[in-house]
Specification:
By secondary structure, the chain is α+β, with helices and mostly antiparallel strands. It has helices at about 15-25, 40-45, 60-70, 80-95, 100-115, 165-170, 220; strands at about 25-30, 55-60, 75-80, 120-125, 130-135, 140-145, 150-155, 155-160, 175-180, 185, 190-195, 200-205, 210. The longest helix has 17 residues, at about 100-115.
Length: about 230
Amino acid sequence: MPEVEIIGECATGEEAVADIQSRHPDLVLLDIQMPGCTGMEVVRRVGPANMPMITFVTAYDEYAVEAFELNALDYLLKPFDEPRVRTTIERALERRNALDNASLAHRLQALLDNGESSRPKRLALKSGDRYELVPVDSIDWIESANNYVEMHCGGATRIFSETLTGLERKLDPRSFLRVHRCRIVNVSRIRAVHPLGHGAYALELRDNMRLTTGRQFRGAVEALRRR
């Protein structure tokens, strides 16, 4: 597309924040799920008033799609092909002059506000013939176990019928951080971070538990120092 110049490509949310702030692009194709921090967290950290036009990229999620449509924000559903991307960019070029910055900032802020209000405060765990309501803030860390997860809460382990990725989407990214393909940690429980070399770390929790992080989540762990 001769009228389009690609000025950057980012592998993590951390890189996206830095590039948007330094390069000031006209349009960002922003993936919702990225290592380091989510697309929503990127918007929050850059600030809705400072964001360029955005097309959100997401796997099918009825709640995310509904939120984008409610706030008149464009999105690309995975999997997509080249014609769909071209159409999206052409639509963005047409809207560039029609959509003022204040209107875009208002829509992005509304999206963030809606997202915060939809975060669960408690999770319902089936236990025999009843459901146990577990406060989200009681969770220390979470580990994947095939198609369910083990939630560690103050010495107790509870089984929740949900995938780790599915649960990650429900939790507040400011409070819960994916640090390994099999682990999510409540950041308020982290007491110290110990480098292990080659991009991996050991997270020391308040109960002296140590969890090893994955190298692909290096940016997310290092960002803890700036929180």
